[in-house]
Amino acid sequence: MSVNLLKNPFFEDASTLAFWDTSGVTSNPGNPQAFEGENVAQLGPVTADGEVAIISQRVLLPSGTTHLHVSFAVQAALINVTPTLTAPWRVTIQWLGSGGTPVLLEETLIQRQAGMATRDANDWLTYVAVSGPKPTGAVYARLRFILQGDTVGTTNFFQGIQIDDVVLTTD
């Protein structure tokens, strides 16, 4: 495997999300219970069905890349939101052509459904995934963490998540 392709993968660059693109409610709160270091990336909370928060980073693919490997830690954000059920989230890879667009393929690596526990007693869960083969013509890849509000029946899933210790490598 290669070195980590991401910049600021542990979110320790000041109190910002430097090098990460964001959309929706995102922040970099100091967290005494961070997976490592002192900062985390926080997505949400979202407050409506369909509301989205995204954090992403685009990387240049080294020559010889065939697959990408991603690992990260996640826990529910400790926010005062009622109800406190974690919103569904997913992690995707967008394979991009030479100009950075268009998306040749978006591949979901990990998906958490509404109603599944994201944490137990503030524990961090760690995930590891391997992408499918790099599509022909892909020069860049964008790693995306996506949180989306969801209402199922009368139950709202709006609580945010925190991520930390993100590693993206190649074969």
UniProtKB/TrEMBL annotation:
Highest taxon listed in the record's lineage: Bacteria
Protein's recorded name: CBM-cenC domain-containing protein
Organism name: Polycladomyces subterraneus
